[in-house]
Structure formats: C-alpha cells, structure tokens
Write a structure and sequence with these properties.
The chain is α/β, with parallel strands linked by helices. It has two domains: 4-60, no CATH class; 65-265, Vaccinia Virus protein VP39 (Rossmann fold), CATH 3.40.50. The protein has helices at 4-9, 20-31, 44-49, 56-61, 65-79, 99-108, 120-132, 144-147, 186-196, 214-221, and strands at residues 89-92, 112-116, 138-140, 159-163, 171-172, 176-177, 202-209, 226-231, 241-248, 263-265. It has an eight-stranded mixed sheet with strand order 3-2-1-4-7-9-8-10, with helices on both faces. Helix 5 packs parallel to helix 6 (99-108).
Length: 266
C-alpha cells in the first residue's frame, strides 16, 4: 500500500485542497507517521486547526519541517562567515508552500525574505497560509526571472538563494538526480541570479537527492568559489534529501585555502 496515497495525491487529488484525514493518511501510509507533513513548525492537526491548507501535490512535494530546519541551520552556519552588519536578502524562485523559506528566514535572521510562485493555485494558498501565520515573508505570483529586476540590495549585502526547481525527469533511478536536467536547469538558475546580483556575495542553497549524479554536481560546483554537499539521514537509505551549499564572490573563512566539495551525512 506504500505510495498508493502519494500517487493519488499527485493524480486525482493533485490540485485539490486536502482534508486533515487525507494529510494524515498520506503520512501514515507512506512513512508510518501521521504527523509526517509538519510545516511552519506545526503538526498537521495544529496547522489545520489554524486554517492552514495544502493542495495534494504540495503535501507530497513540500520540504517538511524536519528537513527544512536542517537546511536552514546549515545555511546559517555558512552565512555567518560573511562579515557584514547588514542582514541577508533571502530569495526562493520556486517557493511552493514557502516552508523552506520560513525556516531559512528564521535561522538566517534575514532583512527580507521573498518567494516567487508561478502556479496561481499554489500561490493563493501559500499567501493565505503565510498571512494566517503572520509571517513577514513576501510571496509573489510571478516568474522569478522577471521579478529579480525589482530587487536591488546594497553591494555588501549577502544574498541567499534557495534553489529547488521541479525535478521532472531529472531524477534517474540508476544515475540519480542530474542538476543539469531540472526544469529549468540549476546551472541556468544560478547564472541568472549571479548575473543579476553581480556586485553581491551570494550563498546558494540547492536542494538535492542523496542519489545525485556526481558528474552534474562536479560540473555545477566548478562554477562556484566554494561548495560542499550534505545529505540528511532522516528517511530510509535511498529516500533522503540534502543540499549543495555554494558561494559566489566569497568563501567561508575556514575554507578559504581549499575548495570544499565533499559529501557529509547528518
């Protein structure tokens, strides 16, 4: 029965707003945990009671609390190496539920957090959810490529960009996730952001799968000044996610003499 509920939520229930029982059944059937889909620091029964709602595909695809929290903590450790009195600007080109944006903003103590979500249905629910939680995060129903022109941080301000585009068919069962085949390709996204914020130091936080195509990681990492790959042991082997943390126009102080490009598990 495992994954039957997931297929249902990505099929006939894809664009439907879920009832609490459906969210809990998905977590229980797929992961043995009715509280699996925790978002905004709340268990399903808690966020549902507050009026938070998720679409079927968002429940399946969102970065839940346990993972988003780990990502936020590790990004904050790297960001602290950038010596500046200004708090970072945080952007998420593919915001979805906005949950990773929430955790990154929380750990980074950002000056501003902005997410872009092109799908009108996901955008509408996320905007309502963030308002319900009184979270000071901006969410815009616009393609990030056109929206970047409205963001002009000071040159010394660190820009943190969380990159998690749709994977589509980029996750191959044999070779793993190919960062060059996401939709759009991750190298295209990082270059566009780097070119727009041409005077700023940038920290990229790129979500990956533990079965990642190493050639694609090496190719993407070669474009950065520093990078490190980290995988989180939260689920069964082969099902875990991780992040590629990478910088442009600066390096973390402890790693200035060498490029970090290793895989660590946590």
């Amino acid at each position: 029965m495992k994954y039957d509920r997931q297929l249902l939520l990505l099929g006939t229930k894809r664009d439907a707003v879920l009832e609490l029982a459906e969210v809990q059944a998905y977590g229980r059937d797929s992961y043995g945990d009715a509280d699996y889909v925790c978002v905004y620091g709340l268990r399903p029964s808690e966020w549902y009671a507050k009026g938070i709602r998720l679409l079927g595909r968002t429940a399946v695809e969102c970065t839940r609390d346990e993972l988003a929290d780990r990502i936020g903590r590790d990004a904050a450790v790297v960001a602290r190496h950038w010596a500046s009195r200004e708090r970072p600007l945080l952007i998420d080109p593919f915001a979805g539920s906005g949950n990773t944006l929430y955790w990154l903003a929380r750990h980074l103590s950002v000056a501003r957090g902005v997410g872009f979500e092109l799908d009108s249905g996901v955008f509408a629910l996320t905007r309502e959810n963030l308002a319900t939680m009184s979270l000071s995060i901006e969410i815009r129903n616009v393609d990030y490529r056109s929206a970047l022109s409205h963001l002009s941080p000071d040159p010394s301000q660190l820009v943190v960009a969380f990159i998690a585009p749709p994977w589509g068919d980029a996750l191959d069962p044999a070779s793993g996730l190919d960062l060059r085949r996401t939709d759009p390709p991750i190298p295209e996204i990082t270059e566009r952001i780097s070119n727009h914020f041409s005077e700023n130091p940038i920290l990229f936080v790129i979500q990956v799968h533990e079965t990642v195509n190493r050639d694609s990681v090496d190719e993407v990492s070669a474009t950065f000044d520093w990078s490190t790959l980290k995988v989180y042991d939260l689920l069964a082997p082969g099902s875990n996610h991780g992040v590629l943390l990478a910088t442009r126009r600066w390096k973390p102080a402890a790693d200035r003499r060498r490029r970090g490009n290793l895989t660590r598990r946590a």
